[in-house]
């Protein structure tokens, strides 16, 4: 009987050891699976949702909101007949139907506003998604993390889609021309061109805070664009006298168009503060451009 009991005891010990070994293997497998999946999330955060990239995206969106959007027409020139049926090379904007072109500008403006809204919302989704995934990695225990894995995978997939959409929206797109912009009567029978419309951007004008200053009765203003455009275009410079509530006189202002990156304003009052504003001039093809830069200078 002692022999039988010894055999049973040995079998129990062997079974317990085997069970313990099996549980240890399972625990190790669970831990390895956790580490593998955790590393996948960390890799995703460090590549697709890199914090530096998100900060860069945020700066790009803010800059895009300050940009000026224009309607581009291709081709720039067409061949048309005059009243004597002589062929001439003509600027496309001179023969495009005015009303139809204005409608396309409205379409372009709407497209820009939708684009900027979508970019803002997508960036917000990316930033919140990064925080959510980081929270899973940093705070969840092994069991909770693995139980939420399917959701985490879906989240990463959705964020990848958001990122791809965000990147594609950063470049202004083409516009679908629904109506004919040039009539046969305008070209007097000449072959009508295949007109394509698209949106393009120009950088905002920004005052140079170091080079702009005021003296006794004059002020020198200087501005630039972030991409340092070599071709100077028309811009609108506005200034006004700042007054406080205790002053009876009303503030006055003046606007002038400048084709330069610098301007000197004469005839200012000594010891007074003036607000100067710079923006791009309104042109025939401008569809969107609300932002302007301002600087306040005080004469001596």
The radius of gyration over CA amounts to 33 Å
Oligomer: single chain
Strand content: 15-25%
Classification by helices and strands: alpha+beta
| CA-based shape | flat
Largest sheet: 4 strands, antiparallel
| Overall structural domain count | 2
Q: Approximately how much helix is present in the residues?
A: 40-55%
Low-confidence stretches: none
What does this structure look like?
Residues 205-300 form the Fibronectin type-III domain. InterPro entries: DUF5581_C (IPR048317), DUF5581_N (IPR049231), FN3_dom (IPR003961), FN3_sf (IPR036116), FNDC11 (IPR039581), Ig-like_fold (IPR013783). The protein is α+β, with helices and mostly antiparallel strands. The protein folds into 2 domains: 47-201; 203-298, Immunoglobulins (Immunoglobulin-like). The protein contains 7 helices and 14 strands. It has helices at 2-47, 51-66, 92-95, 98-139, 142-147, 149-169, 184-187; strands at 68-74, 77-81, 87-91, 174-175, 196-202, 206-207, 213-214, 219-224, 235-241, 253-258, 262-265, 273-280, 286-288, 293-298. A 4-stranded antiparallel β-sheet has the order 4-5-1-13. Strands 6, 7, 8 and 11 form a 4-stranded antiparallel β-sheet that branches. Strands 10-9-12-14 form a 4-stranded antiparallel β-sheet, with no helix packed on it. The longest helix is centred in the N-terminal third of the chain and has 46 residues, at 2-47. The N and C termini lie far apart (114 Å).
């Amino acid at each position: 009987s002692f022999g039988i009991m010894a055999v049973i005891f040995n079998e129990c010990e062997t079974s317990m050891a085997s069970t313990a070994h099996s549980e240890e293997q399972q625990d190790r497998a669970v831990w390895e699976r956790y580490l593998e999946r955790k590393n996948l999330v960390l890799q995703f955060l460090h590549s697709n949702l890199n914090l530096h990239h998100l900060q860069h995206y945020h700066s790009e969106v803010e800059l895009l909101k300050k940009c000026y959007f224009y309607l581009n027409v291709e081709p720039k020139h067409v061949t048309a007949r005059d009243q004597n049926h002589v062929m001439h090379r003509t600027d496309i904007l001179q023969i495009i139907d005015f009303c139809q072109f204005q409608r396309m500008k409205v379409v372009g403006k709407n497209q820009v506003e939708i684009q900027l809204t979508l970019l803002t919302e997508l960036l917000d989704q990316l930033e919140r998604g990064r925080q959510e995934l980081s929270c899973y990695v940093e705070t969840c225990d092994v069991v909770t993390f693995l139980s939420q894995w399917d959701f985490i995978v879906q989240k990463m997939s959705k964020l990848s889609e958001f990122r791809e959409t965000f990147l594609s929206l950063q470049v202004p797109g083409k516009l679908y021309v629904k109506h004919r912009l040039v009539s046969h009567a305008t070209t007097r029978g000449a072959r009508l061109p295949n007109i394509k419309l698209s949106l393009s951007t120009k950088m905002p004008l920004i005052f140079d805070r170091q080079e702009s200053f005021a003296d006794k009765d004059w002020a020198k203003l200087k501005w630039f664009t972030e991409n340092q455009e070599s071709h100077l275009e028309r811009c609108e410079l506005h200034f006004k006298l700042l007054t406080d509530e205790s002053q009876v006189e009303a503030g006055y202002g003046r606007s002038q168009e400048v084709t330069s990156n610098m301007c000197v304003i004469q005839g200012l009052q000594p010891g007074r503060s003036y607000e100067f504003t710079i923006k791009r001039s309104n042109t025939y093809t401008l569809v969107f451009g609300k932002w302007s830069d301002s600087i306040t200078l005080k004469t001596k």
